[in-house]
User: What shape does this take?
Amino acid sequence: MTGDRAQWKSKIGFIFAASGSAIGLGNIVFFSANAYAFGAGAFYLPYLVALVVVGLPLLILEMGLGGLYRRALPSTLGRIAGHWGEVAGWFALLNASFISMYYITILAWVGGMLLGSFGPLWQPSTDLEAFGTTLPNPVGFFFDMLSSWGVLVLVAVVWALNAHILRRGVATIEGAVRIFVPLMWLLMLVLIVRGLTLPNGGDGVALLFTPDFSLIGDPTVWQGAFGQIFFSLSLGFGIMTAYSSFLPRNADHVNNGLVTACMNCGFEFISGLAVFSLLFAFAIVPQASTISMMFFVVPQGIAAMPVGVRLFGVLFFVLLLLAGLSSSVSLLEAMVVSAIDKFRISRRRVLTFCIGIGFLGSAAFALPTVIDAQLESDGTLGLTLLDLMDHWAFNHGLLIAGLIECLIVGWMLPVSRLRETINRHSRLRLPAAFDWLIKLIIPAAIASLLASSLWSKLQNGIYGNELALDWGSQLPLFALLAWVGGSFGVAVWLARRPAAVAVPAEVADAP
Ligand code: PHE
Assistant: This one.
């Protein structure tokens, strides 16, 4: 039936692809921004708890599901829980599609900054009056770029790159990640050596490890840590399920999960060292906003370097682009495989459809007027729509998807069966406690985080500190509600559609 499903050429190819998905913008900039915002050294405790108690078990679970059912998430959850299981799978996937739209917009901006870092990024801005201040570059460059239509070309280029990498599925993905992932590690090592050898670079590292325990009781810190682990390990969207469905039957999912998690968190850890040392060498204060960290704060640190500004600027943005691309292709592949698995349509048709819609979505995020009619520079960049979506997707969407996944697999599969199947081929066996983690502990942890977040939202307003009641400023919220409602509707519709009669995957996948 699925015997002719395409396969990774080698285990290392799969590990590169899985860790390439995990290692992305989340590791390089979001981690540092979150760590700084959530108590620096004190952030490590919730972070490690989130990794061991939730991240690693869920990673192994998602990989094991792919190995057991050899299908993407919607068909897998459909097999386990029927119609509503499949709806949940499609819903998670549609959220992934949405994340991929803004993720790719951010990558387009990274591309623009990369072009700029060959020269113009480090020169005075041409359009400073528009902002009424003398903004230091590269901030000015970034705003110039945002307000130009050229950014749409960049968006198109990044989508085209994704399409190119995905054109023949795992075969072409494996080819790309075999180059991207080792190169990412190399670039990161260069940056870290540079950061740590700068005068005062060590102070930044010291700060990264100095705990501020007053924050440890704060639920938002825990939510930040859980969100970071989910996002960083690419959990909750069935990406690892799709990738693992192309592994041989005797794959060791425990080992794969451990290796992927170690590579991801190791990369995140050394990125923190690089970013903190670089910033503190020049007394630049990191900012909580992940976007400003990437486009303003780190480039400012690079601009302050005595020599090699262009070189390190280029290296930093190439690194972001490679890491981001190997993540965005995984988001898209999860969707493409889901459609192929259910409807048996050719890869080329699914790709064309996804890329067409995805480009329009990303372009909408990139349009200056959608970002913010006034293009205000108020620290959050005024990127209202993107900021809000990021906030919801990062802190809530992923957690909700993970919660549903745990409940379905935990109680309906049930998880003991999955554990036994995984253990059959793994050197390190999953203990029986794994079942209770999936059935009870992880859902309870996620549910209480979501509840406390909801509670504080009700008290403080949905966005920022107060709930402004004018329609214009609530537009992003309505857009979000429309998205959630709409994707639920589409998920129900997709799940209702009859599955195509199975034809060999090879035939269906033929370009
Ligand atoms: N893990 C990726 C990162 O750290 C982002 C990502 C999230 C990719 C969810 C796929 C799915 O940047």
Residues 73-116 form the longest helix (44 residues). The radius of gyration is 22 Å. The chain has 20 helices and no strands. Residues 369-382, 463-469, 503-511 have pLDDT under 50 and may be disordered.
